[in-house]
Amino acid sequence: MSTTSRFRRGTVFLLVATAISFAFSAGAPAQAAAAKCGTVNLADNAWVGYEADLAVVSYIMKNDLGCKVVVKNLSEQVSWQGFPTGQIDAILENWGHEDLAAKYITKQKVAVDLGSTGNKGIIGWYVVPWLAAKYPDITNWKNLNKYASMFKTSESGSQGAFLDGDPSYVTNDAAIIKNLKLNYKVIYTGSEAALITSFRNAEAQKKPMIGYFYEPQWFLAQVPLVHVTLPAWKSGCDANPKTVACDYPPYALNKVASAKFMSSGSPAATLLKNFSWTNADQNSVAKSLAVDKLSDDAAAKIWITAHPAIVKKWLGN
Amino acid sequence: MSATVLAKPKPVQKANVVQKYKMELYLSALSAGFVFFAILLRGIATLPLDTSSLTSFQSWLNSVSDWIGNNQNSNPFFTFFINVIRDSIDAFVTGIQDLISQSIGNNASPLIGWLGIVVLLSFVAYTVANVRIAILVFLGLVSLGLLGFWQESMDTLALTLAAVVLALIIGIPLGICAGLFPRFEKVITPFLDFAQVMPTFVYLTPVTLFFLIGPASATIVTMVYAIPPALRITSVALHEVPWSSVEAAVSMGSTRIQALRKVQLPQAKRTIVVGINQTIMAALSMVTIAALIDAPGLGKVVVTALESLDIGKSFQAGLGIVILAVLLDRTTTAAASKVDTENSHLVSHKRHRQILLFGGIATLVALLISRIYSWAGNFPGTGLIGSDIARYADDIVNWIQLHFVSVTNAITNGVSYGLINPIQNLLTNSPWFVTGLAFVLLALILGGKKLAIISTLCVLGIVGTGLWSDTMTTLASVLVAATATVAIGIIFGVWIGRSKRADQIMRPMLDAGQVLPAFVYLVPFLGLFGATRFTAIMAAIVYAAPASIKLMADGIAGVPASITEAGIAAGSNKWQMIVKVQLPSARRALALSTNQGIIYVLAMVVVGGLVGAGGLGYLVVAGFTQLNLTGKGLAAGLAIVLLGILLDRITQAAAARSMLERTK
Amino acid sequence: MISVRHVWKVFGSNPTQIIGSPDANLSRSELRAKTGNTIAVRDVSFDVAPGEVFVVMGLSGSGKSTLVRCMTRLIEPTQGEIFFQEEDILKVDEKRLRELRKTRFSMVFQHFGLLPHRKVIDNIAYSLEINGVSKVERHDRANQVIELVGLQGYGHAYPEKLSGGMQQRVGLARALAVDPQVLFLDEPFSALDPLIRRDMQAEVIRLHHQLGKTMVFITHDLAEAVKLGDRIAIMRDGAIVQIGTPEELVAAPADDYVANFVQDFPKSQVLTLRWIARKPDENEDLSGPILPPTVTVHNSMRQIVESALPIRVMEDGHLLGVVTTKDMLSVVSGSEL
User: Looking at CA atoms only, how far is residue B174 from chain C in angstroms?
Assistant: First the structure.
């Protein structure tokens, strides 16, 4: 090796070493600020309603409580797995999941139910609005077979296409179709994005489309999908996933947190416990995020400035 | 051999011709037989399985994954081994993040603020490469900040660096072993093949099973993807060192270690640096995919943008990834070529030393300033140009969607009804033993007994996963996408290979196409083509075509001048030159680009599952997010790998055969 | 100096089982077809005297390169003994072997084997460097050798900048740097142009005169072998067919193979009068000029032609025989011997 490169290597090393030591010495004061609250690990599930909850809660945590918020992009069920390992401190909007609740809350006692978010969740079958306007009787499942041929696509063969969304949502659609003897085939679009795009295009191009959807969802503000009624849900009618032939149950959305975190005395625990708002509240923040393309913090700030009393109540003051 | 040919040329040639005819005869008989029996026995033994149903194998995988989840914090295998690895890697990654990307405490910058990083990295670029690269690095980094993704870019960089460092620590020594000990190389090669054939998405789930979601898993999946190139190229580098110089060193009494240190490694240095380049690029492309398992950085922006259909933002972040890729690629490429010129010492020592000293001091000052002043710590004009770019991208895509949707719908329907559906119907309705036997016979004809055995194992393995029918659905799309990819590869490859100007125009676009995460173009494609298999096929083609085109172009450009000159001298016109001279001469490249086209298309099967392709890809995605489908998702991953090995080996055998015929 | 005794080298999966079995007598292709093994060196024995230039000659694939590599154990022989100054180098351990290679043996390679990342001077000093010689000392020594082989001014160039002939001078210099006792040269000039090759051959002769090193020289070129070799061993299919001085080979080839080899060689340049002198006929005039038997035919041509009488070949006052123009012409035209 030549002397130049040895010299060069030495210089670089020296520079980096001194730089780092300088940085450490100067860096000390900046670290002190966040001591009171500490770190909060929040799950971030993929849908926009959840994002809205997350934006507002983490904004308050950061700015009012001085917490360091770590957001983890996880799917619903995987988020639950984070409780025993300490990777997740809270899930802000939980849709059902009785099996997971039984496992982690009742049996392992690593998680606790923090009560309702104030939002009501509906899952079901929806058609695009123009279709419901043109064929009003399509919103009753009994008439679906009459229109099946209209829903045929290149993906569904001789049957009507029924579109399912994000693979992480547990759906009964295939079983419902089979058990109600409907002439439809479930097409897995594979992501919520794909499902929403399909609905949007169908409405814009006046094409027939039926699929799985849910509310609250900001997209309904853009395209007001129409709910199709299935045989009404009765307790236990969906117990066996093979024989289910009824609608989805209504969901009271709730918050779930790690038991360890709740007993840690963090001020964030109180906030999580008290957090509760309406569907309209959530939709307004969700719209800021998804339609107006604001950043999480900006969207949260607008809502928070407009609702100081609610925030105060959450903080327990 | 040559002696016998010379002695009696005629009989030998005749035998060849018969042989060749025989091969074509076999192949056409095989396809005819397959179609006949597939239609005759359609609907029998097609092994379909409902999405929500599980086979006992899949349930067993579920229980394995449950067991791992329940014992993660108690079983000594985890507490003393897996968790230790996880914690050390986590600590390593977060250490780098604290240094350059993650703020420590609230509202503070990381240890090194943006100004410090920009100046430091430009200086490093100067020392390992040259002034031009240093300026490029400077401008590139600043534009990352202006795009509005300073911290995300640094997160991506931190994760890439961590994975690259670890991959090199493992890959280079193993590569040296492989280069020195042929037996070791023989043992390790199948594993490398496996790691490279295996679509990247497939091993996300198993890795998170063991290492949980987070930086450690992200780093490990990235390493799995980045180690093979590091290892392979190091081994090649050692093989490339002329044996005569090694022998000379040994004849002078060098020990093995001396020969390695003083003779082999110095000569292999340049190629090893090329290997580092490949490792970095592989790591970067995987780090963005790892966003699916919560890897921080630009990939995460793209994924969340996909979830909210934010085309502009996903494009903006995708651009950031491309910039980062260009910086890393150009720097390491320049560093590699500098290894060559270092021998001749072109730079004047004194001036060089002065610049180094000056640069070093400037770097120190910048580091200090970035630590003291907040304007130098947190990027100031953040997002200055980012939102404009996002808006333009949005507008353009919307405009295209609005005006072309009837055309694209027609294309989607045409291809789906005319091509995908017939192929898929044929494959999914054919009894598994007919299709499986067809594969085995194809393997036997093209590759002989050994390949036939491998194929039999693959076919039986796929049946064993319980996902035969889904595999056939996926195979249909893969065949269509691969055929299109190869066709595009040939057309563009010939064009680029023949014209320097085309090369200059297309190369950067191809490079960008290779590093741009697929998620970026999924949303526009969804808008244009709907949630269909055709969208998935289009995404796969966009992903696979650049590699295919590059290989083909290199092959055409690499046809020896003596051959092209002979072709021109014989009076060939342009078309004759391409078809009769250049393509046949670049046959190896053609075979390679076909093989790589298929591998790349397979890698996109899982992404296809996100946009309506169904089949195995959807099951992998569903298994990843639904606990009771975890086992099924793992089985689907396994089926993709088996299908990949099957197609890879058969195309390789076909390629080897075409080479053989040529040498005869 | 060096004694090679019954050395075998068999490539393949079960090499030792071949030696001594009937298979060892099969031809190469038969053996390969039958057992998959190849005999590269077959029962080779010879001695090299101190200061001698011993040439091993054969066509490609005859095993000559393998043989020379066996002698320094760059390739491990399958069986046999090789004595270097009473020490069987096939029995020494790795450490002693490296010592021998560092101090006693040197090798020059067909494709030079230079290290492209080192300057000429550092190439030459390489073996001193791994011997632990200090930088100043080894550069001193390297400069001496540079001068010896005529590379003055090229010490700080990189090998790739030099012509082939110059590169092989570096190879020679590198081999001479440790002042070895034996020099192994494996087809050192085969890769060079004919003119350069002639220069380099002259260089080797000069160095041999100047330094008196023992040399084992591998070549496929008979002219080169004759020019340089004190003795020549001819190899075929791994075995030595004949060992002898150049004139012995030309005058008395052991078999058709060797005869075929030397057939086109200008015999007059090698053969001395000893080989062509014949008994005088009864009525031949024995008063012609006298020449010693050690003169080559080529060098005595003029006197033979100019003399009307038969030349008398005399050694120590004895008449060995006579040579006439007719005898000489038959040698030159190749019709005899």
Answer: 24
**Nearest chain B residue to C106, by CA:** B252
Three-class secondary structure of residue B132 per DSSP:
helix
Best mutation site among B4, B241, B243, B251 for testing chain C: the one with the most C CBs within 10 Å?
Answer: B251
- Note the pLDDT of residue B630: 84
Q: Are A125 and A211 in contact (CB under 8 A)?
A: yes
For chain A, the domains span: 5-119+254-314, 121-228
Q: Which residues contact A33 (CB under 8 A, 6 or more apart)?
A: A66, B105, B106, B107, B108
Cβ-contact B491, B547 below 8 angstroms:
no
Contact B72 A85 (CB under 8 A): yes
Instruction: Provide the shortest C-alpha distance from residue A171 to chain B (in Å).
Output: 9
CA distances from B314 to A15, A201, B390, C327 (A): 37, 20, 8, 98
Q: Do C98 and B253 touch (CB under 8 A)?
A: yes
Chain A residue closest in CA terms to B301: A73
Assigned CATH topology for domain A121-228: D-Maltodextrin-Binding Protein; domain 2 (3.40.190)
Collapsed DSSP state (helix, strand, coil) of residue C69: helix
pLDDT band at C23 (very low <50, low <70, confident <90, very high): confident
pLDDT for C55-86, tens place per residue?
999 888 888 999 999 998 989 999 999 999 88
What residue segments make up the domains of chain B, in order of their start? 22-43+53-70+400-664
Tell me the three state secondary structure of residue B533: helix
Percent of chain C at pLDDT exceeding 90: 31
Q: Compute the average pLDDT of residues A297-302.
A: 92
Interchain proximity C98–B254, CB inside 8 Å: yes
Taking Cα atoms as reference points, which of B172, B168, B141, B154 lies closest to residue B222? B168
Burial of residue B113 (CB within 10 Å: 0-12, 13-18, 19+) is buried
DSSP per-residue string spanning C259-314: HHHHTTS-GGGT-BHHHH-BPPPTT----S-EE-TTSBHHHHHHHHHH-SSPEEEE
Amino acid identity of B234? T
pTM for this model (two decimals): 0.79
Q: Report the alpha-carbon distance of residue B149 to residue B142 in Å, rounded.
A: 10
Neighbours of chain A (3+ CB pairs under 8 A): B
Q: Which residues 120-139 of C have a C-beta within 8 angstroms of B?
A: 126-127, 129-131
What is the chain B residue with the closest CA to A196? B309
State the first-to-last Cα distance of chain A, in angstroms, to the nearest integer. 69
* Distance separating the N- and C-terminal Cα atoms of chain B: 10
Using a CB-CB distance cutoff of 8 angstroms, which residues of chain B are in contact with residue C178?
252
Helix axis angle, B311-341 to B298-307, nearest 10° = 160
* Token couple for C137: 């000392």
Cβ pair A166:B625 closer than 8 A: yes
Q: Position of tokens 């333009």?
A: B392
pLDDT of residue B220: 92
Contact by Cβ (8 Å): B14, B22: no
Alpha-helix residue ranges (DSSP H) falling in B448-499: 449-465, 468-498
Beta pairing partners, A124: A213
What are the Cα distances from residue B93, in Å, to A39, B86, B528, C187?
A: 18, 11, 39, 56
Interface contact A27-B111, CB threshold 8 A: yes
The low-confidence residues of chain B, meaning pLDDT below 70, are 1-21, 103-109, 340-349, 381-384, 658-664
| Residues B49, B467 contacting (CB under 8 angstroms) | yes
CATH of domain A5-119+254-314: 3.40.190.10
- Domain B22-43+53-70+400-664: give its CATH code: 1.10.3720.10
Q: Cβ contacts of residue A65 below 8 Å, gap of 6+?
A: A36, A37, A267, A268, A271, A315
Say whether pLDDT at A7 is over 90. Answer: no
